[in-house]
Amino acid sequence: MYLKQLQLEQFRNLSSAWLEPARYLTILHGCNGQGKTNLLEAVYMLGSGRAFRTTRVPDLIQHGSAAAAVTGQVQSAGVENRLLLVLEGSTRRISIDAKAVHRAADLHGKLAAVIFTPDDTAMIKLGPETRRRYLDRSLYSANVGFLQDYHGYYRTLKQRNAVLKNNQQHELLLWTEQLAAAGIRLMQHRSRYLSELQHLLQHQYTRIAGTSETVALQYKPDVAITSADDLLETMLAHQEQDLRYKTTGRGPHRDDLLFLINDRPLKGFGSQGQQRSFVLALKLAELDHLQQAFGEEPVLLLDDIASELDRQRISNLLTYLRQRQVQVLITTTDVTPFRHLLQHDSRLYRVDGGNLTYEGNGLS
Ligand SMILES: Nc1ncnc2c1ncn2[C@@H]1O[C@H](COP(=O)(O)OP(=O)(O)OP(=O)(O)O)[C@@H](O)[C@H]1O
Ligand SMILES: [Mg+2]
Fold first, then answer.
1. Which residues line ligand 1 (CB under 6 A)?
2. Which domains, from first to last, does the chain contain?
């Protein structure tokens, strides 16, 4: 699937922008703070209905404006559709070919996208919350049914915490049971997804790094479960303490994800280069996974990769993606590392103060 046209109105600092991406390679270049990442964010949001940097809708609307709109002409499964995302106040509305969409599932598979940003590498070192958010977000891209179970768990968690706060002990058991049941579903999603991703990750890592190192993505649930009752038992055993602290201490809202290289934590034992290769491999594994889920290549958004990868790796990556016929949108402050990769059908845009200028294919 790919994006043929994109129009932005009042989306962050992009007041009115029009883009016709290339089928394969589009480069968006400009100085810091000009709107390059904002543009990728708009594409990602159009495909998923959600933001990747923030979910606060008002932040996405240009300061001083009442609403923002992102329109995209997309091609998937041989069909062209017009997707429209309108952000107003704190609400978002989506329509496909001028028909309002009420379920996230309808949007699924129209413009699946994977985004790779410098923040992804930071995820190795940051706290579990960042990795959890990453895991859930990428899981959601491939499986729209996950959203319901995700919201189900977090809604119940909120209610149980309110019960704890108000010390409504007679209601606690009911909420604990519901939370454990919802928690099991959430954990099953996470565990299944990670095992699906595992061999894709290893394959991509070996391809990128060209070594025999083993890499792994290991689910590290807060409560290890062998039977569906384990989570409930742990939560029940923790009830006294939860009442004291007025919050739910144990459960999948505390889950983590371990990145391993040769069976050791990547965080402490991986070199910078290994860490970068790992995260890139993870992103490409996501791409593989979506390709399998939709039977088509998703779009790849590469935010500021020149800060993450050296020239050789950029060359290898883009050559590989071109062979796979993936549509790629890249942001950079400097076009130099990409010059030799431009082809007659590439497209170059300059991003300046929220304005886009088309500069042809960049070949001179
Ligand atoms: N809601 C908004 N309304 C207006 N401007 C906004 C809004 N949200 C963010 N901005 C502006 O967008 C700019 C940042 O854009 P963006 O992150 O896309 O920059 P960038 O080109 O990717 O820069 P860098 O090269 O530093 O990554 C900032 O100047 C910020 O003030
Ligand atoms: Mg940026």
1. 12-13, 30, 32-38, 59, 61-63, 304, 331, 333, 351
2. 1-112+296-364 (3.40.50.300), 121-295 (1.20.1050.90)
Residue carrying structure tokens 């992804």: 120
Q: pTM of the full predicted structure?
A: 0.94
pLDDT in tens, the chain (364 residues): 999 999 999 999 999 999 999 999 999 999 999 999 999 999 999 998 775 555 688 999 999 999 999 999 999 999 999 999 999 998 889 999 999 998 777 888 899 999 999 888 889 999 999 999 999 989 988 888 888 899 999 999 999 999 999 999 999 999 999 999 999 999 999 999 999 999 999 999 999 998 999 999 999 999 998 887 999 999 999 999 999 999 999 999 999 999 999 999 999 999 988 999 999 999 999 999 999 999 999 999 999 999 988 899 999 999 999 999 999 999 999 999 999 999 999 999 999 999 999 999 988 7
Ligand nearest to the CA of 17: 1
3-state secondary structure of 93: strand
Atom of ligand 1 nearest to the CA of 35: 18
Query: 257, 129 in Cβ contact below 8 A?
Result: no
Ligand nearest to the CA of 29: 1
* d(CA 273, ligand 2 centre) in Å: 22
CA 66 – CA 51 distance, rounded (Å): 18
Question: H or E element: which one contains 129?
Answer: helix 128-142
In the reported structure, the alpha carbon of residue 305 is separated from the centroid of ligand 2 by a whole-number distance in angstroms of 10
